[in-house]
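#struct-pred

JT: dropping the chains for the assembly here, can someone run the whole complex?
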Amino acid sequence: MSITLNDVRKDYDSQTAVLKNVSAKIETGEFFVIVGPSGCGKSTLLRMIAGLTPITAGEIKIDDTVVNDLPPKARKLTMVFQNYALFPFLSVWDNVAFGLKARKLATDDINARVKEALKMVNLTKLAKRKPRELSGGQRQRVALARAVASDAKICLMDEPLSNLDAQLRIKMRQEIYALQRKLGLTLIYVTHDQVEAMTMADHIMVLNDRHVQQIGTPSDIYQNPRNAFVAKFFGTPQINILPAKRSEENSHIVNVSSDLQIVLDEEAPSANLQIGIRPDDMQVKRADGVESNAVVKNTEFLGDETIVYATLNSGSDIHVVLPGKADFRSYEPIRVTANANLMFFDPDGKRIDLSKEAYVHA
Amino acid sequence: MLKSPASNPTAGVHSADTQAKIEASEKTFSLNAKDKYYAWLFLGPSLLILGVFIFYPMFRTLYLSLFLTNTVGKPTVFVGLQNYVNLLTSADYLNSLLVTMVYVLGVTAATIVLGLLLANLASKQLAGIGIFRTLFSATMGVSVSVAAIFWLFIFNPSTGFLALMSTWLHLPVIPWLTNSTWAMIAVIITTVWMNLGFTFLILFGAIQSVPRTLYEAASIEGASSRFQFFHITIPSISPTLFFVSIVTLIEGFKSFGLIDLMTKGGPTNATNMLVYRIYKDAFYSGNFSQASAESLILTVIIALFTLLQFKVLEKRVNY
Amino acid sequence: MDVVAKPKFGKNFGSYVLLTILALIVLAPFFIGLWTSFLPTMQIAKGNFLSTDLSFQNYIDAFTQTPILHYLGNSLVISTVTMFAQLLFCSMSAYAFVFLDFKYKRALFVLVLATMMLPFEAEIIPNFSTVKAMGLLNSYSALVVPFLTSAFGIFMLRQSFKQMPVELKEAADIEGLGHLQFYWKIVMPYNRIPLITLGAYSFLGAWNQYLWPMLTTFSNAYRPVQNGLRQLQSEETFNDWGMIQATAAIVVIPTLVVLFVGQHYFKSGANEGAVK
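RK: done, full complex below.
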């Protein structure tokens, strides 16, 4: 089942909008991730799709039916909550069976479905336990089993992994992905974690500041962010965003202070720009006082790579990822260069498409 | 929509559609459109009972207190505040107010001090301490008439336990219950004993919930257990302490059973407290209007303390 | 941990002595009452407190010559009915205040809170007339009807209901549970512990009623145990101490047993809750 959002809007207290102009098309069987910082309205959007929160304006369609005015039950979907919303007084089995009983399915059917769902999430042996007798990961699986047991083909998940530790999160991420593919669910998944979004999504919707920033595939969003916010949100460590000015002598030349110089194929469109450079698109080497354009602050060795934190002579902080081990001491003068894989943003952070043939001098 | 369906037969399909949409939107806008019916269903019984047996009587009491009443409690002559004036100028009533105050303050102070002592001792990490915790809370299971019977025997001037003890030890026998001062003390002792189990449990719970690390940190600094009690325990449980004090105060003002069972307000009105007076004036003397005025004064006193209690609750509930 | 600061035995010994003395003082009235309940009244009257002439005669007399069992039965009926009624009506009201959306919700809640300020003891005059007009005097109903609900109970349950995770309601909405189902299938079982606490509180409250039953019941058929004991104490020759103590013991022993057993229960319940 597909879901269409048409110019959806949500106001609280009649005036203040929490979400505006949200439009998207989520295809049948798609893993769709809504991502954004906390407070961006992503959970609200999910609750509006579920029917738990009424929308102020716009249209939500499931397949070809407008569901704006349908109660949650009639929308035929399931939801997995951040705190799992397990009923503490019911056993694992009864928790999974709960929704099926509420929908008055036949007992045989319920038993078959619960059994199948528990098997699928490897909880068959724990069916009689109460939620408090389970570990965090097991509780998470019960919540998943609830969604699996339902015949609903749309599943909404609200930060389902944020209460788990890092190891378990990776494991559950894979399990959720496998389940979604196996059952052919249309899955809408809300998270603040860009890694989850990148690793699982077919399409990502980036929300910030009440608006949709961008919708696209993970690689599209990483490589072609529509603005500085999206560029910064994806990728660890974060992209370097540096203020730059068009050279007064040559409008094809853009300078990051006197530290970096970029030669463009075309004229720079405005006097002030921002330049985005991914940390692994930069190089560093030792340099003497004359050649150097930056000073090392500190380095972090991560095993397979090293992050060098440095300050450009102009005062901007940057970080560079180098493969393997790199030995730099604090306060050591260095020379930083970048390859041509750059992004340009206007002073408001909006992406400017400039020719990729840019050439970088140091 | 203003047109009747008959005048516009061709619009049938369309208007049915619109109609369905409107109905649906009323259903969701929001999920809780039907809530008001449920509200009546869920709240109705409680509101009815509270209205009939708590609210109405308060206004009725106020009304009666402004009249003279006949012997069956029907108002006869409007007298305004005369009943109140009579009460507040009557030495007898002022005495009742005074003895009630003495009783309430005595009971509260003693209950809190003893409850704290027991709770603090029971919080020590000792083997078998659980038995003491259970024993200290035992008086919670005692009802007012049982307590009265136990203590009436203990205080009995001829064959009572304390009288026997005094005789054995060749001490003068204390005239419990027959002397004004001692009667008050006897009633206070009995009340404190009854209160102790509950107060102990609440204060013990509060002490248990003080983070152990506070005590550990203090021990490392070399603070004595006495210092810890006054500088960690007391401040940490002060909201509970205040709460329990007010509950004890309020219950004290409402005391009736023990008075009726042990002293009947005597000797010579020495324990003739507010509720006992109301009962006597209304159901013995048939002076319903005066008893109503007394009731209202009692209500005001208790309402004030309850408001104070709400202030504490509010803090506790909302952190 | 004890390795670091092993308390000295002397210090502990002092604590034990103090604890024992205090326990003896607190329990003394029980011991004295229980002891005398086994003594013949003759011996008590003579001051022979340490007489060894012990027997169950007082208990036999109490059971056969007084309606003490009937009083206990009355109290049991009244307290049980009051408890279940309060659990039902208080939880329903609390549900309305937490999960329903309606006009004047806040005002009504303040009104309910306000009733907590009004002592029942100060309202006995009109309430007596009301109950009399309803024809309920000298019946179980007179003792139950005014206490079918409690503002305190409503307030207490509202606080617990409010602490339930919102997601439970949302999960129920997605499954299409109505208010009645959500109330009965989720809210009530979820709040077992506060409901048990309120139940205990209202049962004890009804059990310990004194003034109101004294006003509204005048026959042993409906008289609850508190007023029954008063009745015995005033009816019987005032000095039959042995039997009076026996009746008091008959009343208090079950409550003590319930309390001790219940405390164990509560403790394990609390532990379960803590582990989560």
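JT: nice. The mean pLDDT of chain A is 88. Chain A has two domains: 3-232, 240-361.
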